[in-house]
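Figure 6 in text form: structure in, sequence out.
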């Protein structure tokens, strides 16, 4: 149940990001939702549900990003989830500064992976400079929204857990 709610929350963020990109002159500060999903799920979800949810978020991002080859963001989300699982024991992703730093580094790594996948799958790609110029501002936007997004998702997970406990208690009373 939590995985479905997290997926819906991240898809909602992706859906909100698309119109904001078109309408805003500050679109360069929009966060990388795939990186946020991969890091959040890697630090708080189980292996199977987290990996599948992160890959699903990447697949939805693939649907929104029509210029990129299909599957690029799915692979970035899956690799980001796995990398987060590796470092989650060493980095306190419950605190603000480590979370922001991890999201910033994750955004740069995701940008490099995107460029690597473009070299492999889309040989005619010629927007290298634009992608590299946008990377610092996207990392900044991701860092700025990481703590509020993670806090909101943690609160949502707490509400779900409380609701499951309430149903479990009422189920036993019948």
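Output sequence:
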């Amino acid at each position: 149940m939590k995985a479905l709610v997290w997926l819906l929350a991240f898809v909602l963020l992706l859906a909100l990001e698309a119109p904001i990109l078109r309408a805003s002159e500050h679109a360069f500060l929009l966060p990388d939702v795939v990186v946020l999903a991969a890091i959040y799920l890697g630090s708080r979800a189980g292996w199977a549900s987290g990996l599948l949810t992160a890959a699903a978020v990447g697949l939805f991002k693939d649907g929104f990003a029509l210029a990129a080859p299909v599957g690029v963001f799915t692979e970035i989300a899956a690799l980001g989830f796995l990398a987060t699982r590796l470092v989650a024991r060493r980095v306190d992703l419950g605190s603000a500064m480590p979370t922001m730093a991890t999201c910033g580094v994750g955004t740069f790594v995701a940008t490099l992976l995107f460029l690597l996948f473009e070299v492999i799958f889309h040989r005619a790609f010629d927007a290298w400079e634009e992608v590299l110029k946008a990377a610092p501002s996207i990392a900044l936007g991701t860092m700025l929204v990481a703590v509020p997004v993670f806090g909101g998702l943690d609160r949502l997970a707490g509400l779900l857990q409380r609701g499951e406990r309430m149903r479990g208690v009422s189920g036993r009373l019948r």
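Caption detail: The mean pLDDT is 86.
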